[in-house]
Amino acid sequence: MPLVMKLVSSAPKMQLADFNPPWIPFLQRLITILETAETPLTTPRYQQLLGAVLESYRDNYVGQKPAAQIPGLHSGTYVCRFPVDERTRYYLHKETERHGVQCSHATDRSGPLETLVVTRPREMENAEYELKQKKATEMFQSFDQTKLSLLLGEDSPPLRRDCGSGR
Predict the structure, then answer these.
(1) Which of 18, 96, 106, 110 could form a disulfide with 101 if both were Cys (CB 3.0 to 4.6 A apart)?
(2) Dihedral, CA atoms, 42, 46, 50, 51, nearest 10 degrees?
(3) In this structure, are residues 4 and 44 in contact, taking their beta carbons and an 8 Å threshold?
């Protein structure tokens, strides 16, 4: 089996660390190599390679947008702020850690009264997803867009939309 087809078949199994480096820089250099070798960017095997790696990037790095609502949770507020004294803040920090409550907690010292800020997982998931979307957009924009469109072929619009550059 040719190397390109092996890469295409293993792309869906790529892990987060596989993308940058080495795969994204490799794909960017591949375009230059194909042009230097006077290989058309519409060559199916290279379109398949780029499409498979970028689909894996979309699926395994960017992932799905978190669900809009947590089942069973009635409050739409994901970040809670509690203006409490230092002793109470310390107690709440220790208790959330001791009981393994899935949230982050920090002290906001920007106002006249220090505030305990508790962030629920959904907010953390949304922030992480938004950061990945931003990085995906930057990654897509780092490619020559005309050449990327040729290499992606029919897959270009959905991949761009799903990875953030279509927004």
Answers:
(1) 96
(2) 70
(3) no
For the CA atoms of the chain, what is the radius of gyration? 22
Indicate the domain borders of the chain.
3-66+126-162, 79-119
Strand, helix or coil for residue 70: coil
pTM greater than the 0.70 cutoff:
no
* Structural tokens at position 53: 């790696």
Q: State how far the Cα of 99 lies from the Cα of 80, in Å rounded to an integer.
A: 18
- Reported as half-sphere exposure (CB side, CA atoms, 13 A), residue 82 has a value of 15
Could you read off the pLDDT of 114-144 as tens digits, one per residue? 888 888 777 677 788 888 889 888 888 888 9
Structure tokens given for 6? 């092996």
Q: What tokens appear for 141 in the block?
A: 């924009």
- The token duo for 118 is 């508790």
92: which 2 tokens? 């709440």
CA-based nearest residue to 138, from 146, 126, 130, 127: 130
Rounded to an integer, what distance in angstroms lies between the CA atom of residue 18 and that of residue 26? 11
In whole angstroms, what is the distance from residue 22 CA to residue 28 CA?
10
